[in-house]
Amino acid sequence: MATLRRLHHESRAVAFILVGMVCISINDTLIKFLSDGYPLHEMVFVRSAIGIAASFVILRFEGGVSLLRTDRPAMHALRAVLIVVANMTFFAALAVMPLGAATALFFVAPLFITVLAIPVLGETIGLPRIAAIIVGLIGVGVMMAPGVDWGGIPRWNLLLPVAAAACYAGMQVLTRKLGGQSTAAAMAIYIQATFIVVSVGFFLVAGDGRYAGDGDSEALEFLLRAWVWPAAGDIWIFVVLGLMSAAVGYSLSQAYRLGTAAVVASYEYVALPLAIFWGWVVFDEVPDPIVWVGIALIAGAGLAVFARERALARPVASARPIRRG
Question: Total structural domains in the chain?
Fold first, then answer.
């Protein structure tokens, strides 16, 4: 009976992570599509306002607002800040980089999860995982090599999705520690609320565009340009962004809450071919041959980590029976 229950939870976790990856790919595509005309913090505010409303509806069915109470507020706050920074830096990368390439660089996150799990969750890693981490970092180096044509964007912009991956990894490790005590909707609400606070802060400080600069950095301009009222044809895109935000927050939290990391996280790689597909269809982006090599190294390294952990029947982020939420 226990085995059947575990398999049921794992199958539900896989379904949630697949839904989450589809929603993420749509979300990223829409944000990149809007990045020429709107500041990032405006999009974040609108999508989070809609997302938190949807999450409260879900929370009502999970048990009500009483589930928002927690005895670990500091850890929830840190988790929320990490995912906000991860999103901001990744979305800034989308404004200047091909969608598929930015997503591929972001997929060093599972390797960072493996490393962070050592001090945070007491994991130990052997030579196979150490080798996978090295291969993944080589893939990052290949994509950042001087000979790769990135259309003249400053090289430091390539570090944005890598920084996003590091923050995301920290968030996921903390999620594992918190998963047994909070519902998926509650944890999504904490994050959406942090997004709203941060975006309002951006508006109060830079909402008039005074810090947007002279266009030397598209990424910084995307972060700091002035708020504008959405055009009539773009309002529906903002609404979809909000719904995607709620779906992503809930689906990912629920997936990691129900399943083990070694199983669930490997399915996140569905987002990589989806990103390449949307980049090709919507933006006519096709990665350079050398970028394909880097993508293969990063994806192969991450999947090797998950394959190793599944063979050992051990979660990639923790050996303890605590489900991430």
Answer: 1
